[in-house]
């Protein structure tokens, strides 16, 4: 639809606001079982009709920011804040809590909480809050492997932002759709969506723009177009968000892989060496994956001695990873078998085993912040 409107030189925001009806198109199945205490408490407050409350949107923004590092604290705060938040903000409070439960890998609790928040927001006719909650719900179901369902929820959020004339919200949901399309192995559609997103995201949102541009790079890599991928990386770096440690490291990593695809192995090796060093202090499992990529590039250059030395550097990762049996066992295999003969096939297998842990987002997040032994 967006492509057709673009071809007709019609503004999609204006068009949808004029022609789309009021039916919200949502058909959400309620979660079975008992609701979590937070949801029960929120419903009790609504039923009592208590409208007092002093906590505003600034408090919600604080909780939303802190949920990445202080998830347990945020859920405790949310339970307390139910009776203190301004009543119109109650669904958004539940939304923040639901996203926090997602980070704690309590996906059923998170989904239950966000669905309850959606029900409240729809009854109160708060379309902006409904759109925001649909975005949060999409990430929860995606963590549970439901990328097709996440795409649907993102599309429903997009429709609401169109109705509201919210260009920024519209652009953000397009970025989300690009992510889910990438996971669904639909790179051409993902590219189209991310390019559209960039037209609606202002320069004042560098992180969102950088995410869209990184998505373009990943999709061009998947399509075997490394030069276009590198162009997207340069655009992402110019956005400013690429200066952040995590985002900058991911951009450099993608750049190294693209140079490897181009056969410029020396450039790729230098970049991947920097990535390994940076992720040693950011995420130990990501560091292990990047080390596998570095070993691969050295093998492609017919430098087995360098590859073996690089592989042996992963010994420092074993102790902090001892509680994650899958990742630590994969590294141990590489170290043991690599002494007999390090091959591209072995490195690829070990990398795949480590990356398989990403299917458990909580286990993967738990490895963030661990440090290699000296």
Helix content: over 70%
Q: Overall 3D geometry?
A: globular
* Percent in strands: under 5%
| Main sheet summary | none
Report the C-alpha radius of gyration, rounded: 23 Å
Overall mean pLDDT stands at 89
Q: Can you tell me the residue ranges where pLDDT is under 50 for at least 5 consecutive residues?
A: 19-23
What is the N-to-C order of secondary-structure elements (H for helix, E for strand)?
Answer: HHHHHHHHHHHHHHHHHHHHH
Quick summary:
With 374 residues, the chain is mostly helical. The chain contains 21 helices and no strands. The protein is 72% helix and 0% strand.
Protein described:
It is a single chain. The protein has 374 residues and is mostly helical. Helices cover 72% and strands 0% of the residues. It is built from 21 helices and no strands. The longest helix is centred in the middle third of the chain and has 18 residues, at 147-164.
């Amino acid at each position: 639809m967006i492509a057709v409107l673009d071809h007709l030189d019609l503004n999609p925001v204006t068009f949808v606001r004029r022609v789309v009806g009021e039916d919200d198109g949502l058909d959400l199945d309620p979660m079975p079982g008992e609701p979590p205490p937070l949801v029960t408490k929120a419903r009790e407050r609504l039923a009592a009709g208590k409208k007092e409350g002093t906590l505003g949107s600034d408090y919600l923004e604080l909780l939303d920011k802190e949920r990445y590092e202080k998830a347990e604290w945020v859920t405790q705060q949310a339970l307390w804040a139910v009776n203190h938040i301004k009543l119109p903000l109650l669904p958004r409070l539940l939304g923040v809590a639901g996203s926090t439960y997602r980070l704690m890998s309590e996906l059923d609790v998170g989904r239950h909480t966000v669905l309850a928040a959606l029900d409240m927001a729809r009854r109160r006719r708060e379309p902006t809050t409904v759109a925001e909650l649909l975005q949060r719900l999409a990430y929860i179901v995606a963590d549970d492997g439901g990328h097709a369902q996440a795409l649907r929820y993102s599309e429903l959020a997009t429709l609401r932002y169109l109705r509201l004339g919210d260009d920024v919200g519209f652009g953000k949901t397009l970025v989300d759709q690009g992510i889910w399309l990438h996971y669904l192995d639909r790179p051409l559609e993902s590219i189209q969506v991310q390019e559209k997103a960039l037209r609606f995201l202002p320069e004042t949102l560098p992180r969102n723009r950088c995410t869209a541009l990184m998505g373009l790079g990943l999709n061009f890599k998947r399509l075997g177009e490394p030069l276009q991928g590198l162009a997207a990386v340069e655009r992402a770096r110019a956005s400013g968000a690429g200066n952040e440690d995590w985002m900058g490291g991911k951009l450099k990593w993608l750049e190294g892989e693209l140079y490897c695809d181009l056969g410029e192995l020396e450039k790729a090796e230098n970049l991947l060496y920097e990535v390994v060093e940076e992720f040693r202090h950011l995420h130990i499992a990501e560091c292990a994956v990047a080390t596998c990529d570095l070993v691969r590039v050295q093998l492609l250059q017919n430098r087995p001695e360098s590859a073996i030395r690089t592989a042996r550097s992963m010994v420092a990762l074993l102790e902090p990873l001892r509680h994650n049996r899958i990742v630590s066992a994969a590294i141990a295999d590489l170290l043991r078998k690599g002494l007999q003969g390090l091959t591209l096939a072995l490195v690829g297998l070990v990398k795949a085993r480590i990356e398989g842990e990403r299917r458990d987002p909580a286990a993967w997040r738990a490895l963030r912040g661990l440090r290699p032994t000296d």
